[in-house]
Amino acid sequence: MNQLINNFLLIYFVLFFGVAVIWRNYSVAERTGINAFKLNQKTGPEAITGVYFKCLPLVSILVFVVFALFPNVYLLLGPIKLLTYALIQYSGTGIMLVALVWVVTAQSQMGASWRIGIDHDQKTEFVQRGLFKYSRNPIFVGVIFMSLGYLLVLPNSITFAILVLNIALIQIQVAMEEDYLTRQHKQEYREYCQQVRRWL
Asked: Within a domain: residue 62?
């Protein structure tokens, strides 16, 4: 079972960073000439969430590396035995796969408007198509479900903390982004918020 988890997570991380981060950033840069990564040189709450969202992938990969290569050290991360069952772990892989497809789909629907962080320098298109007809923040919904799936695949104190911090800090990030979008798109965005839920 451990080898299956190792293979799954290795492929998953390659796909996630290759498609949802590197390729998407490259695609936006090709279309706009703009780097979509906007987490640097922020202040206040944006600086806090920016540091977290930059560190989160590294911590997630580190947990996987420890699990795969240093099983004795992994025991120090506080595995949650109550969740360590094959059926639960398989469910986690399914959730992670669906979440990845969901995130990549939402990113594609955003097109050139996609950013990691708030772009204060450019006014982007207000996207209301596709998944954005049903959720104001489908990418963040997908990220939360990824974290949930990861917890089920590798249940331990760190993956639990990642899920909790994701939920908390995404709330802050979404509030900042929605305030920014309200200032940018005014009444059109206010009406959108009345018609479409923040999450699902």
From this structure: yes
For 39-99, the DSSP string reads -SS--THHHHHHHHHHHHHHHHHHHHHHHHH-HHHHGGG-B-GGG--HHHHHHHHHHHHHH
Bridge partners for 156 per DSSP: 79
79: phi then psi, degrees, rounded to nearest 5? -55, 140
For residue 200, being part of any structural domain is answered with: no
What's the pLDDT at 146?
98
Q: For residues 97-134, b (16+ Cβ closer than 10 Å) or e, as one string? A: eebbebbbebbebbebbbbbbbbeeeebeebeeebbee
79: domain CATH number?
Answer: 1.20.120.1630
Model pLDDT for residues 82-103, shown as the tens digit of each residue: 999 999 999 999 999 999 999 9
Question: Cβ atoms within 10 A of the Cβ of 2, count?
Answer: 11
In a domain, 164, yes or no: yes
Question: What's the domain range around 150?
Answer: 2-195
Measured between alpha carbons, how far is 194 from 197 in angstroms, rounded to an integer?
8
Number of domains in the chain: 1
**Reported pTM:** 0.94
